[in-house]
Design goal:
Blueprint lengths: L19 H4 L3 E9 L6 E7 L21 E2 L2 H11 L4 E7 L7 H15 L4 E5 L4 H4 L4 H7 L4 E4 L20 E4 H7 L11
Parallel strand pairs: 2-4, 4-5, 5-6
Antiparallel strand pairs: 1-2, 1-3, 6-7
Helix pairs in contact: 3-5
The chain binds iron/sulfur cluster.
GO molecular function: 4 iron, 4 sulfur cluster binding; [formate-C-acetyltransferase]-activating enzyme activity; metal ion binding; ribonucleoside-diphosphate reductase activity, thioredoxin disulfide as acceptor
Family: Belongs to the organic radical-activating enzymes family.
InterPro entries: Aldolase_TIM, NrdG, Organic_radical-activating, rSAM, rSAM_sf
Length: about 200
Amino acid sequence: MERRTKRTLPRNPKPKEWTAAEYSKQYVASYKPFNFVDGEGVRCSLYVSGCNFACPGCYNLAAQNFRYGKPYTQELEDQIIADLSQSYVQGLTLLGGEPFLNTQVCLQLCHRIRAEFGHTKDIWSWTGYKWDELMQETDDKLELLGLLDILVDGRFLEAEKDLTLQFRGSGNQRIIDVPESLRTGEVVIWKNLVK
Ligand code: SF4
């Protein structure tokens, strides 16, 4: 008889194995305007729905489901843009779920932010992918990466859990300066990192 063992590590996709085209239902789990916890400064955070990494200890288990929450709408996008236009808001944060498996939503929103605000607002995103994995990924994922300022990369690993870290839950995760990393071809850590 087959014995079921409890998973202790996240899943590891092969390059291009998981695509937004296949998985995303373009749902959002939550939108939180004007918060102080999802990156630097005052931020508006969009939590997209659906993630395949299945990290044990995931902070947002419900949002692993691609149909959790409600569909992304033009109305929500207009609200996000209006909220971001407040002078005290530093930028947008994308979380999940997995933003890179919801690129339809994230690309539309990020392109609009760049069109309306240029680089006067910054864009942060969390992902379960590691930087090196993203470098081997599909064009839509690379396009999204190219619109970001900061990427917090890597799965959540319970064995490396550390609640004292800035903006991340386990020591393997990194806060990456995306434009500098793309320019130099190697991972450049965010210059304001304290811990
Ligand atoms: S990558 Fe993030 S959202 Fe996905 S399972 Fe891991 S902790 Fe949860």
